[in-house]
Protein backbone atom coordinates (compact mmCIF):
# COMPACT_ATOMS: atom_id res chain seq x y z
CA UNK A 1 0.00 0.00 0.00
CA UNK A 2 1.41 3.36 -0.96
CA UNK A 3 1.17 6.29 1.41
CA UNK A 4 0.74 9.73 -0.04
CA UNK A 5 2.33 12.43 2.10
CA UNK A 6 1.70 16.17 2.18
CA UNK A 7 4.17 19.15 2.19
CA UNK A 8 3.94 22.20 4.37
CA UNK A 9 5.63 24.43 1.77
CA UNK A 10 5.05 24.84 -1.91
CA UNK A 11 1.25 24.54 -1.59
CA UNK A 12 1.23 21.15 -3.38
CA UNK A 13 0.93 17.51 -2.51
CA UNK A 14 2.38 14.28 -3.74
CA UNK A 15 -0.59 13.74 -6.06
CA UNK A 16 -1.60 16.15 -8.86
CA UNK A 17 -4.79 17.97 -7.93
CA UNK A 18 -7.04 19.60 -10.56
CA UNK A 19 -7.37 23.39 -10.32
CA UNK A 20 -10.32 24.80 -8.42
CA UNK A 21 -11.85 26.33 -11.59
CA UNK A 22 -11.65 23.02 -13.51
CA UNK A 23 -15.46 22.71 -14.04
CA UNK A 24 -15.69 26.14 -15.72
CA UNK A 25 -12.65 25.39 -17.92
CA UNK A 26 -14.19 22.09 -18.94
CA UNK A 27 -17.39 23.81 -20.01
CA UNK A 28 -15.35 26.39 -22.02
CA UNK A 29 -13.47 23.63 -23.83
CA UNK A 30 -16.73 21.91 -24.71
CA UNK A 31 -18.17 25.15 -26.07
CA UNK A 32 -15.09 25.73 -28.26
CA UNK A 33 -15.30 22.16 -29.59
CA UNK A 34 -18.98 22.67 -30.36
CA UNK A 35 -18.29 25.94 -32.23
CA UNK A 36 -15.48 24.33 -34.25
CA UNK A 37 -17.73 21.39 -35.11
CA UNK A 38 -20.56 23.70 -36.22
CA UNK A 39 -18.15 25.83 -38.26
CA UNK A 40 -16.65 22.76 -39.91
CA UNK A 41 -20.08 21.41 -40.68
CA UNK A 42 -21.13 24.74 -42.18
CA UNK A 43 -18.01 24.83 -44.33
CA UNK A 44 -18.66 21.31 -45.61
CA UNK A 45 -22.26 22.16 -46.42
CA UNK A 46 -21.15 25.29 -48.29
CA UNK A 47 -18.57 23.29 -50.24
CA UNK A 48 -21.16 20.74 -51.25
CA UNK A 49 -23.66 23.35 -52.32
CA UNK A 50 -21.02 25.34 -54.26
CA UNK A 51 -20.28 22.37 -56.45
CA UNK A 52 -23.01 22.83 -59.00
CA UNK A 53 -23.90 20.44 -61.70
CA UNK A 54 -23.38 21.52 -65.40
CA UNK A 55 -26.84 23.07 -65.67
CA UNK A 56 -26.06 25.28 -62.60
CA UNK A 57 -28.61 23.69 -60.18
CA UNK A 58 -27.95 22.07 -56.77
CA UNK A 59 -28.97 18.48 -56.49
CA UNK A 60 -30.93 17.04 -53.58
CA UNK A 61 -28.09 14.56 -53.00
CA UNK A 62 -25.64 17.41 -52.44
CA UNK A 63 -27.90 19.05 -49.89
CA UNK A 64 -28.48 15.73 -48.09
CA UNK A 65 -24.78 14.84 -48.03
CA UNK A 66 -23.82 18.25 -46.68
CA UNK A 67 -26.49 18.13 -44.01
CA UNK A 68 -25.37 14.63 -42.96
CA UNK A 69 -21.76 15.71 -42.63
CA UNK A 70 -22.90 18.73 -40.62
CA UNK A 71 -24.90 16.56 -38.26
CA UNK A 72 -21.98 14.14 -37.77
CA UNK A 73 -19.54 16.91 -36.99
CA UNK A 74 -21.93 18.80 -34.72
CA UNK A 75 -23.09 15.68 -32.88
CA UNK A 76 -19.72 15.14 -31.16
CA UNK A 77 -19.71 18.68 -29.88
CA UNK A 78 -23.33 18.43 -28.76
CA UNK A 79 -22.54 15.17 -26.91
CA UNK A 80 -19.57 16.72 -25.10
CA UNK A 81 -21.41 19.90 -24.18
CA UNK A 82 -24.97 18.75 -23.46
CA UNK A 83 -25.73 15.06 -23.73
CA UNK A 84 -22.70 13.62 -21.89
CA UNK A 85 -23.27 15.66 -18.69
CA UNK A 86 -26.95 14.76 -18.81
CA UNK A 87 -26.12 11.07 -19.28
CA UNK A 88 -23.70 11.17 -16.35
CA UNK A 89 -26.27 12.91 -14.19
CA UNK A 90 -28.93 10.37 -15.08
CA UNK A 91 -26.50 7.49 -14.38
CA UNK A 92 -25.55 8.95 -10.98
CA UNK A 93 -29.21 9.50 -10.10
CA UNK A 94 -30.08 5.95 -11.17
CA UNK A 95 -27.24 4.53 -9.07
CA UNK A 96 -28.29 6.59 -6.06
CA UNK A 97 -31.91 5.51 -6.49
CA UNK A 98 -30.87 1.87 -6.80
CA UNK A 99 -28.74 2.14 -3.65
CA UNK A 100 -31.58 3.77 -1.73
CA UNK A 101 -34.03 1.15 -2.98
CA UNK A 102 -31.76 -1.69 -1.86
CA UNK A 103 -31.32 -0.07 1.53
CA UNK A 104 -35.09 0.32 1.95
CA UNK A 105 -35.65 -3.27 0.83
CA UNK A 106 -33.02 -4.49 3.31
CA UNK A 107 -34.66 -2.54 6.15
CA UNK A 108 -38.10 -3.85 5.23
CA UNK A 109 -36.75 -7.39 5.00
CA UNK A 110 -34.99 -6.99 8.35
CA UNK A 111 -38.21 -5.76 9.98
CA UNK A 112 -40.16 -8.64 8.45
CA UNK A 113 -37.57 -11.16 9.64
CA UNK A 114 -37.60 -9.59 13.10
CA UNK A 115 -41.39 -9.87 13.29
CA UNK A 116 -41.24 -13.49 12.18
CA UNK A 117 -38.49 -14.19 14.71
CA UNK A 118 -40.48 -12.63 17.53
CA UNK A 119 -43.58 -14.64 16.64
CA UNK A 120 -41.62 -17.90 16.38
CA UNK A 121 -39.91 -17.29 19.73
CA UNK A 122 -43.20 -16.51 21.44
CA UNK A 123 -44.58 -19.95 20.56
CA UNK A 124 -41.35 -21.84 21.31
CA UNK A 125 -41.48 -23.97 24.46
CA UNK A 126 -37.93 -25.19 25.01
CA UNK A 127 -34.31 -24.21 24.43
CA UNK A 128 -33.85 -26.60 21.50
CA UNK A 129 -36.66 -24.86 19.62
CA UNK A 130 -35.09 -21.45 20.34
CA UNK A 131 -31.76 -22.60 18.90
CA UNK A 132 -33.42 -23.92 15.74
CA UNK A 133 -35.27 -20.63 15.30
CA UNK A 134 -32.05 -18.67 15.88
CA UNK A 135 -30.27 -20.68 13.19
CA UNK A 136 -33.00 -19.93 10.67
CA UNK A 137 -32.96 -16.25 11.61
CA UNK A 138 -29.21 -16.08 10.93
CA UNK A 139 -29.68 -17.80 7.57
CA UNK A 140 -32.14 -15.16 6.30
CA UNK A 141 -30.41 -12.05 7.61
CA UNK A 142 -29.90 -9.57 4.71
CA UNK A 143 -26.30 -9.36 3.54
CA UNK A 144 -25.09 -12.08 5.93
CA UNK A 145 -23.82 -15.47 4.76
CA UNK A 146 -21.55 -16.70 7.58
CA UNK A 147 -22.64 -16.54 11.22
CA UNK A 148 -22.13 -18.32 14.53
CA UNK A 149 -24.05 -18.58 17.81
CA UNK A 150 -22.53 -19.83 21.06
CA UNK A 151 -24.58 -20.45 24.19
CA UNK A 152 -24.03 -21.84 27.68
CA UNK A 153 -26.67 -23.24 30.01
CA UNK A 154 -25.43 -20.84 32.68
CA UNK A 155 -23.10 -17.80 32.61
CA UNK A 156 -20.58 -19.64 34.81
CA UNK A 157 -20.55 -22.90 32.84
CA UNK A 158 -18.88 -23.90 29.58
CA UNK A 159 -20.32 -23.29 26.12
CA UNK A 160 -22.55 -26.26 25.25
CA UNK A 161 -24.49 -25.14 22.19
CA UNK A 162 -22.86 -23.96 18.93
CA UNK A 163 -24.86 -23.02 15.83
CA UNK A 164 -23.04 -22.18 12.58
CA UNK A 165 -24.47 -21.00 9.26
CA UNK A 166 -22.54 -20.75 6.01
CA UNK A 167 -19.06 -22.01 5.18
CA UNK A 168 -17.07 -20.59 8.10
CA UNK A 169 -13.28 -21.20 7.86
CA UNK A 170 -11.91 -23.16 10.85
CA UNK A 171 -9.50 -20.36 11.76
CA UNK A 172 -12.38 -17.85 11.92
CA UNK A 173 -14.51 -19.94 14.30
CA UNK A 174 -14.87 -18.66 17.84
CA UNK A 175 -13.53 -21.28 20.27
CA UNK A 176 -14.20 -19.67 23.66
CA UNK A 177 -14.85 -22.12 26.51
CA UNK A 178 -17.01 -19.88 28.70
CA UNK A 179 -19.16 -16.82 27.93
CA UNK A 180 -16.91 -14.63 30.08
CA UNK A 181 -13.97 -15.39 27.77
CA UNK A 182 -15.57 -13.17 25.09
CA UNK A 183 -14.87 -9.39 25.32
CA UNK A 184 -18.30 -8.66 23.87
CA UNK A 185 -19.97 -10.63 26.68
CA UNK A 186 -17.77 -9.10 29.38
CA UNK A 187 -18.49 -5.56 28.20
CA UNK A 188 -22.16 -6.28 27.62
CA UNK A 189 -22.36 -4.52 24.25
CA UNK A 190 -21.99 -5.28 20.55
CA UNK A 191 -18.73 -4.66 18.71
CA UNK A 192 -17.57 -4.37 15.10
CA UNK A 193 -14.08 -5.64 14.29
CA UNK A 194 -13.51 -3.56 11.16
CA UNK A 195 -10.49 -5.46 9.87
CA UNK A 196 -8.43 -8.58 10.41
CA UNK A 197 -5.98 -6.77 12.67
CA UNK A 198 -8.72 -5.80 15.11
CA UNK A 199 -10.35 -9.22 14.85
CA UNK A 200 -7.03 -10.90 15.67
CA UNK A 201 -7.31 -9.43 19.17
CA UNK A 202 -10.27 -11.73 19.86
CA UNK A 203 -9.05 -14.47 22.27
CA UNK A 204 -11.40 -17.12 20.90
CA UNK A 205 -10.12 -17.43 17.32
CA UNK A 206 -8.73 -20.76 16.19
CA UNK A 207 -5.81 -19.42 14.12
CA UNK A 208 -4.50 -16.78 11.71
CA UNK A 209 -7.45 -15.32 9.83
CA UNK A 210 -7.72 -13.99 6.30
CA UNK A 211 -6.45 -10.37 5.99
CA UNK A 212 -9.75 -9.29 4.42
CA UNK A 213 -11.92 -10.67 7.23
CA UNK A 214 -13.99 -8.53 9.60
CA UNK A 215 -16.80 -9.35 12.03
CA UNK A 216 -19.72 -8.03 14.06
CA UNK A 217 -20.36 -9.57 17.50
CA UNK A 218 -23.05 -9.06 20.13
CA UNK A 219 -23.77 -10.72 23.50
CA UNK A 220 -26.81 -12.82 24.38
CA UNK A 221 -28.08 -11.61 27.74
CA UNK A 222 -30.28 -14.06 29.68
CA UNK A 223 -31.87 -12.78 32.89
CA UNK A 224 -29.39 -9.92 33.10
CA UNK A 225 -26.23 -12.00 32.60
CA UNK A 226 -24.15 -12.71 29.50
CA UNK A 227 -24.73 -16.35 28.60
CA UNK A 228 -23.58 -16.46 24.97
CA UNK A 229 -22.91 -14.46 21.84
CA UNK A 230 -23.82 -14.10 18.16
CA UNK A 231 -21.39 -13.08 15.42
CA UNK A 232 -21.33 -12.60 11.65
CA UNK A 233 -18.32 -12.37 9.36
CA UNK A 234 -17.85 -9.65 6.75
CA UNK A 235 -15.11 -8.01 4.73
CA UNK A 236 -12.68 -5.30 5.73
CA UNK A 237 -14.06 -1.80 5.21
CA UNK A 238 -17.66 -2.94 4.71
CA UNK A 239 -19.91 -0.23 6.23
CA UNK A 240 -22.84 -2.67 6.26
CA UNK A 241 -21.23 -4.44 9.24
CA UNK A 242 -22.76 -1.80 11.50
CA UNK A 243 -26.18 -2.52 10.04
CA UNK A 244 -25.46 -6.24 10.58
CA UNK A 245 -24.55 -5.51 14.19
CA UNK A 246 -27.88 -3.75 14.68
CA UNK A 247 -29.77 -6.78 13.34
CA UNK A 248 -27.66 -9.17 15.40
CA UNK A 249 -28.29 -7.15 18.56
CA UNK A 250 -32.04 -7.17 17.93
CA UNK A 251 -32.02 -10.94 17.38
CA UNK A 252 -29.82 -11.56 20.41
CA UNK A 253 -32.09 -9.45 22.60
CA UNK A 254 -35.19 -11.36 21.56
CA UNK A 255 -33.45 -14.73 21.91
CA UNK A 256 -32.10 -13.85 25.36
CA UNK A 257 -35.51 -12.64 26.53
CA UNK A 258 -37.21 -15.86 25.44
CA UNK A 259 -34.48 -18.05 26.92
CA UNK A 260 -34.90 -16.26 30.25
CA UNK A 261 -38.62 -17.11 30.29
CA UNK A 262 -38.07 -20.74 29.24
CA UNK A 263 -35.28 -21.30 31.74
CA UNK A 264 -37.27 -19.68 34.53
CA UNK A 265 -40.23 -21.94 33.83
CA UNK A 266 -37.95 -24.98 33.60
CA UNK A 267 -36.29 -24.07 36.90
CA UNK A 268 -39.68 -23.71 38.57
CA UNK A 269 -40.82 -27.03 37.18
CA UNK A 270 -37.56 -28.66 38.25
CA UNK A 271 -37.92 -27.25 41.74
CA UNK A 272 -41.49 -28.51 41.94
CA UNK A 273 -40.53 -31.99 40.72
CA UNK A 274 -37.11 -32.52 42.32
CA UNK A 275 -35.96 -33.46 45.79
CA UNK A 276 -33.65 -30.65 46.97
CA UNK A 277 -31.28 -32.89 48.94
CA UNK A 278 -30.58 -35.67 46.46
CA UNK A 279 -31.54 -34.07 43.15
CA UNK A 280 -33.78 -37.04 42.33
CA UNK A 281 -37.41 -36.84 41.31
CA UNK A 282 -39.77 -36.26 44.23
CA UNK A 283 -42.97 -37.98 45.35
CA UNK A 284 -45.13 -35.79 43.09
CA UNK A 285 -43.17 -36.81 39.99
CA UNK A 286 -43.31 -40.46 41.05
CA UNK A 287 -47.09 -40.39 41.38
CA UNK A 288 -47.48 -38.75 37.94
CA UNK A 289 -45.26 -41.37 36.31
CA UNK A 290 -47.13 -44.25 37.96
CA UNK A 291 -50.50 -42.81 36.92
CA UNK A 292 -49.33 -42.46 33.31
CA UNK A 293 -48.02 -46.02 33.08
CA UNK A 294 -51.02 -47.58 34.82
CA UNK A 295 -53.35 -45.60 32.58
CA UNK A 296 -51.65 -47.11 29.55
CA UNK A 297 -51.94 -50.58 31.12
CA UNK A 298 -48.33 -51.31 30.36
CA UNK A 299 -46.22 -53.97 32.04
CA UNK A 300 -43.67 -52.52 34.45
CA UNK A 301 -42.16 -52.97 37.89
CA UNK A 302 -41.80 -50.86 41.02
CA UNK A 303 -38.99 -51.28 43.57
CA UNK A 304 -39.19 -49.44 46.91
CA UNK A 305 -35.88 -49.09 48.74
CA UNK A 306 -35.44 -48.33 52.45
CA UNK A 307 -32.15 -47.66 54.27
CA UNK A 308 -31.80 -50.09 57.17
CA UNK A 309 -31.36 -48.57 60.66
CA UNK A 310 -31.12 -45.04 59.23
CA UNK A 311 -32.03 -43.49 62.60
CA UNK A 312 -29.01 -45.22 64.11
CA UNK A 313 -26.78 -43.57 61.50
CA UNK A 314 -28.14 -40.14 62.43
CA UNK A 315 -27.84 -40.82 66.17
CA UNK A 316 -24.30 -42.23 65.93
CA UNK A 317 -22.66 -40.10 63.25
CA UNK A 318 -24.90 -37.02 63.12
CA UNK A 319 -27.61 -35.75 60.78
CA UNK A 320 -25.08 -34.35 58.33
CA UNK A 321 -23.62 -37.83 58.01
CA UNK A 322 -27.14 -39.13 57.41
CA UNK A 323 -27.66 -36.60 54.61
CA UNK A 324 -24.28 -37.54 53.11
CA UNK A 325 -25.28 -41.22 53.25
CA UNK A 326 -28.48 -40.51 51.30
CA UNK A 327 -26.51 -38.60 48.65
CA UNK A 328 -23.95 -41.39 48.37
CA UNK A 329 -26.74 -43.94 48.06
CA UNK A 330 -28.17 -41.99 45.10
CA UNK A 331 -24.74 -41.73 43.52
CA UNK A 332 -24.38 -45.51 43.62
CA UNK A 333 -27.89 -46.22 42.35
CA UNK A 334 -27.98 -43.81 39.40
CA UNK A 335 -25.64 -45.83 37.12
CA UNK A 336 -28.00 -48.82 37.46
CA UNK A 337 -31.03 -46.86 36.22
CA UNK A 338 -31.83 -46.76 32.50
CA UNK A 339 -32.85 -43.62 30.63
CA UNK A 340 -36.46 -44.87 30.56
CA UNK A 341 -36.51 -45.63 34.30
CA UNK A 342 -37.36 -43.20 37.09
CA UNK A 343 -35.47 -43.03 40.38
CA UNK A 344 -37.25 -40.93 42.99
CA UNK A 345 -37.01 -40.09 46.67
CA UNK A 346 -40.20 -41.50 48.13
CA UNK A 347 -39.79 -39.85 51.52
CA UNK A 348 -37.24 -39.76 54.36
CA UNK A 349 -34.82 -42.63 53.81
CA UNK A 350 -37.08 -44.37 51.27
CA UNK A 351 -36.57 -44.38 47.50
CA UNK A 352 -38.53 -45.80 44.58
CA UNK A 353 -37.47 -47.03 41.13
CA UNK A 354 -40.04 -47.27 38.32
CA UNK A 355 -38.89 -49.85 35.75
CA UNK A 356 -40.89 -49.84 32.48
CA UNK A 357 -40.96 -53.01 30.36
CA UNK A 358 -39.55 -55.05 33.25
CA UNK A 359 -41.03 -58.34 34.46
CA UNK A 360 -40.82 -59.84 37.94
CA UNK A 361 -37.54 -61.65 37.30
CA UNK A 362 -35.90 -58.53 35.87
CA UNK A 363 -37.08 -56.45 38.83
CA UNK A 364 -35.65 -58.96 41.30
CA UNK A 365 -32.30 -58.88 39.50
CA UNK A 366 -32.31 -55.08 39.62
CA UNK A 367 -33.10 -55.14 43.36
CA UNK A 368 -30.28 -57.57 44.10
CA UNK A 369 -27.79 -55.54 42.06
CA UNK A 370 -28.47 -52.31 43.94
CA UNK A 371 -28.50 -54.13 47.30
CA UNK A 372 -24.95 -55.36 46.63
CA UNK A 373 -23.81 -51.93 45.41
CA UNK A 374 -24.77 -50.49 48.77
CA UNK A 375 -23.68 -53.29 51.09
CA UNK A 376 -20.36 -54.24 49.52
CA UNK A 377 -18.53 -51.00 50.32
CA UNK A 378 -18.84 -48.94 53.55
CA UNK A 379 -19.93 -45.32 53.42
CA UNK A 380 -17.64 -42.54 54.60
CA UNK A 381 -18.19 -39.07 56.05
CA UNK A 382 -15.32 -36.84 57.23
CA UNK A 383 -13.04 -39.82 57.70
CA UNK A 384 -15.62 -41.86 59.59
CA UNK A 385 -16.51 -45.13 57.80
CA UNK A 386 -19.71 -47.02 58.55
CA UNK A 387 -21.70 -49.85 56.87
CA UNK A 388 -25.04 -49.21 55.18
CA UNK A 389 -27.55 -51.77 53.93
CA UNK A 390 -30.93 -51.52 52.23
CA UNK A 391 -34.11 -53.55 52.03
CA UNK A 392 -36.05 -53.71 48.75
CA UNK A 393 -39.69 -54.50 48.08
CA UNK A 394 -40.68 -55.32 44.48
CA UNK A 395 -44.07 -55.32 42.76
CA UNK A 396 -44.97 -55.89 39.11
CA UNK A 397 -48.05 -55.27 37.01
CA UNK A 398 -48.93 -56.72 33.62
CA UNK A 399 -51.95 -54.80 32.43
CA UNK A 400 -54.09 -55.25 35.58
CA UNK A 401 -56.57 -52.54 36.47
CA UNK A 402 -55.00 -51.01 39.59
CA UNK A 403 -54.51 -47.47 40.86
CA UNK A 404 -51.17 -45.98 42.00
CA UNK A 405 -51.88 -46.25 45.77
CA UNK A 406 -52.80 -49.90 45.38
CA UNK A 407 -49.68 -50.65 43.37
CA UNK A 408 -47.45 -48.83 45.87
CA UNK A 409 -49.09 -50.82 48.69
CA UNK A 410 -48.06 -54.07 46.96
CA UNK A 411 -44.40 -53.00 46.90
CA UNK A 412 -44.63 -51.64 50.47
CA UNK A 413 -45.92 -54.96 51.80
CA UNK A 414 -42.94 -56.77 50.27
CA UNK A 415 -40.62 -54.13 51.75
CA UNK A 416 -42.06 -54.61 55.25
CA UNK A 417 -41.67 -58.36 54.80
CA UNK A 418 -37.98 -57.85 53.95
CA UNK A 419 -37.62 -55.80 57.13
CA UNK A 420 -39.30 -58.49 59.24
CA UNK A 421 -37.13 -61.23 57.77
CA UNK A 422 -33.89 -59.56 58.81
CA UNK A 423 -33.29 -56.60 56.41
CA UNK A 424 -30.57 -56.33 53.73
CA UNK A 425 -32.60 -58.39 51.28
CA UNK A 426 -34.97 -58.20 48.28
CA UNK A 427 -38.56 -59.50 48.49
CA UNK A 428 -41.02 -59.56 45.62
Describe the structure.
- With 428 residues, the chain is of the alpha+beta class.
- The relative contact order is 0.06.
- The model is unreliable at 1-16 (pLDDT under 50).
- The chain folds into 3 domains: 24-50 and 59-123; 127-269, 2-Layer Sandwich (Beta-Lactamase), CATH 3.30.450.40; 283-427, Alpha-Beta Plaits, CATH 3.30.70.270.
- The strands form 3 sheets. Strands 2-1-5-4-3 form a 5-stranded antiparallel beta sheet. A 5-stranded mixed beta sheet has the order 7-8-6-11-12.
- Helix 2 runs antiparallel to helix 3 and helix 8 (310-317) crosses helix 9 (319-333).
- 51% of the residues lie in helices and 18% in strands.
- It starts with 21 loop residues before the first helix and ends with a strand.
- Strand 4 and strand 5 (225-235) form a beta hairpin.
- The longest helix has 64 residues, at 60-123.
How are the strands ordered across the major sheet? 2-1-5-4-3
Report the β-strand fraction as a percent range. Answer: 15-25%
Supply the CATH superfamily name of the largest domain: Reverse transcriptase/Diguanylate cyclase domain
**CATH architecture title of the largest domain:** 2-Layer Sandwich
- Helical segment tally? 11
Class per helix and strand makeup: alpha+beta
How far apart, in Å, are the first and last alpha carbons? 86 Å
Shape: elongated
How big is the Rg? 42 Å
Mean pLDDT level: 83
How many domains? The number is 3
Strand/helix succession:
HHHEEHEHEEHHEHHEEHEEEHE
Report the biggest beta sheet as strand number plus sense, adding barrel if it closes.
5 strands, antiparallel
The CATH topology assignment of the largest domain is Alpha-Beta Plaits
Amino acid sequence: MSIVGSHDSGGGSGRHQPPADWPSRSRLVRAVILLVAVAAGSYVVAAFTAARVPDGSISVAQVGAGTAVFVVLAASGSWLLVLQPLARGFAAAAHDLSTRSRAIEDRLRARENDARLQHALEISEDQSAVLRIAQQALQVMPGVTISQLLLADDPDTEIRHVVTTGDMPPEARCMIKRPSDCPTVRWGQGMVYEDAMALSACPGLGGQIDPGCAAACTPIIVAGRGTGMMRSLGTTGDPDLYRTLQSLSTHANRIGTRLAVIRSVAASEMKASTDPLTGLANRRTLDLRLSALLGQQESFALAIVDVDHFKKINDTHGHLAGDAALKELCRRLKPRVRATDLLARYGGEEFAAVLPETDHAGAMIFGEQIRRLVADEPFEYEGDRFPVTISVGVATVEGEDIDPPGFIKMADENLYRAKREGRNRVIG
